[in-house]
Write a structure and sequence with these properties.
- The complex is a heterodimer.
- Chain A is mainly α.
- Chain A has 9 helices and no strands.
- Chain A has one domain (15-234): MetI-like (MetI-like fold, Orthogonal Bundle), CATH 1.10.3720.
- Chain B is 76% helix and 0% strand.
- Chain B has helices spanning 8-11, 24-27, 30-49, 55-93, 96-111, 114-128, 133-137, 141-144, 148-173, 176-184, 189-219, 231-242, 246-273.
- In chain B, α4 (55-93) runs antiparallel to α12.
- The chains are: A mainly alpha, B mainly alpha.
- At the A-B interface, α3, α4, α5, α7 and α8 of A face α3, α5, α6, α11 and α13 of B.
Chain lengths: 242, 279
């Protein structure tokens, strides 16, 4: 049994090819890209979903309810597998029917789609709660001014709900960054999978998994700082609750 | 004073909670009947046109997998909760080194993906342990060679960290007057904790606790990646054996939806049994 300090071979983390640092950083970049893309896609779905749930007809409302219920009741891992295979298959068969032929869907796009659909359900719920927290009088006042429904949405409802939505939305961003790790199971080379490959080929598992953990933690902490700044800005003019 | 984040903000939207269930009276409306007919047609198509001939052969293994999943969920939720109580308490009243330690633990665990923690424990520690002869000869070695202890450890740690934050908020949110009143009665610290502080905190944290337990169920399939045979692993085996892509996954989604539904119904029943007075 050698002494523990010499067991750690720090040169494995070097950025140049004999070390795996560069590979890990590229994996982190992939993770961040997917998280940002999926989060943005989820935000779009969420705005649509929340509006559908609040202002849509009974059938739209029920369909939205089904979407959010199913996504919230089934593990993300299962959803990711299902959407990853089903999504690419469905797209290819549609393209095949249109006579374009099969395309090779990149892992990045598929990953963004999958994370986006999962995030969309949660975002729907967060935004729905936030919109409901906007005092009804403000929306009525906007309507009384003769604003069209779109204008009420963009000028009053969406800006006014933001302070209520930001805690939930920032929480979802942190979940999105961590959910990208699940894409390792479908073989997309993001940080977790890359780490496992690096660890497997060098046999120093502990070093690489700790390094990846530090990278994820850094991402979370940096996000936290930015979220604090955004939150302070969004809550301008609010009475601080002690 | 410690800031009290509303415990709902962390999990409410993420987990399917009892408040989301519809009541029987509000459920049946004319358009719903049309939708139900369409859904029934869809289910019929799925049952008729897709391949389900593999189900009877794998049924016993599926049952075993479900039992493993449920055992994983309940054991780690209970162990994690037992860990979460001291974690939350220490963050509210403890001396600063302990406070910093607990806070650091929660931040690190909540800031990294569960899959990474799982693999760190299984591949990292799992590859480290055999190098120590002392561990190889200890009575723990037969267990450490299996994969499930690592799964239980990772899930427990993650549940404890998330729940520790919730319990911190719950402990801090118990009105100071109640604790002062208990002290004025001459209760010792332990009696005060056991009779007033903990029950009140658990009561406050209960809705979030239910949400977290549902989230824990949704986290269990990750242990299949370290070769624990839960229901997800059984379904993966089916997919490898039969080369069927979608049907096993659909069945798996259905199984998880049923488990979540049962869990949520049970929690609603329990919550209704606990009397609440005022706010």
């Amino acid at each position: 049994m050698a002494d523990p300090v010499s067991l750690i071979n720090w040169s494995l983390l070097a950025l140049e090819p004999p070390g795996w640092g560069g590979v890990l950083l590229r994996g982190l970049m992939n993770s961040i890209e997917i998280a940002i893309g999926g989060y943005a896609f989820g935000l779009l779905l969420g705005i649509g979903g929340a509006c559908g749930k609040l202002y849509g007809g009974p059938i739209t409302r029920d369909l939205m309810e089904c979407y959010t219920t199913i996504v919230r009741a089934v593990p993300e891992l299962v959803l990711i597998l299902l959407l990853y295979y089903a999504g690419t298959d469905a797209l290819n068969s549609v393209l095949g029917l249109m006579g374009i032929g099969e395309v090779d869907i990149s892992g990045l796009v598929a990953g963004i789609f999958v994370i986006g659909v999962v995030q969309g359900a949660y975002t729907t719920e967060v935004l729905r709660g936030a919109i409901k927290a906007v005092p009804a009088g403000q929306i009525e006042a906007a309507r009384a001014y003769g604003m069209s429904p779109t204008k009420v949405m963009t000028r009053v409802t969406l800006p006014a709900m933001l302070p209520y939505a930001i805690p939930g939305l920032s929480n979802l961003w942190l979940i999105a960054t961590k959910d990208t790790a699940l894409l390792a199971v479908v073989g997309f080379s993001e940080l977790t999978l890359v780490t496992r490959q690096a660890a497997g080929s060098t046999k120093s598992y502990l070093l690489f998994f700790c390094a990846a953990g530090a990278l994820y933690l850094m991402l979370t902490l940096v996000s936290d700082v930015i979220i604090k700044i955004i939150e302070r800005r969004a809550r301008r003019g609010f009475v601080e609750q002690s | 004073m410690i800031e009290t984040t509303p415990p709902d903000a962390t999990t409410h939207a993420m987990a399917f909670t009892p408040e989301d269930l519809p009541t029987v009276e509000s459920f049946f409306k004319p358009h719903r009947i049309v939708l139900l007919v369409i859904a029934a047609g869809l289910i019929f198509c799925i049952a008729w046109f897709m391949r389900w001939d593999w189900v009877p052969q794998y049924l016993p293994r599926l049952g075993y997998g479900i039992v493993v999943t449920l055992t994983m969920m309940f054991s780690t939720a209970i162990l994690g909760f037992l860990l979460a109580v001291p974690l939350g308490l220490v963050q509210v009243t403890g001396p600063w080194p302990l406070k910093a330690l607990a806070k650091g633990f929660c931040t690190v665990i909540r800031g990294t993906p569960l899959l990474l923690q799982l693999w760190l424990l299984y591949y990292g520690l799992g590859s480290l342990f055999p190098q120590f002869p002392a561990i190889r000869q200890s009575f723990l070695w037969p267990y450490l060679r299996e994969s499930w202890p690592y799964g239980v450890a990772a899930l427990t740690i993650s549940f404890a960290a998330y729940e520790g934050e919730v319990m911190r908020g719950a402990f801090a949110g118990v009105p100071a007057g109640e604790i002062e009143a208990a002290r004025a009665y001459g209760m010792s610290r332990w009696t005060l904790f056991r009779r007033i502080w903990l029950p009140r905190a658990i009561h406050r944290a209960l809705p979030t606790l239910n949400g977290e337990t549902v989230l824990q169920l949704k986290a269990t399939p990750l242990v299949a990646t370290i070769t624990v045979i839960d229901v997800y692993a059984v379904i993966s085996k089916v997919r490898q054996d039969t080369y069927i892509t979608y049907e096993p996954l659909l069945l798996l989604a259905l199984i998880y939806m049923c488990l979540t539904g049962i869990l949520v119904f049970a929690f609603r029943y329990l919550e209704n049994r606990i009397p609440t007075r005022g706010a």
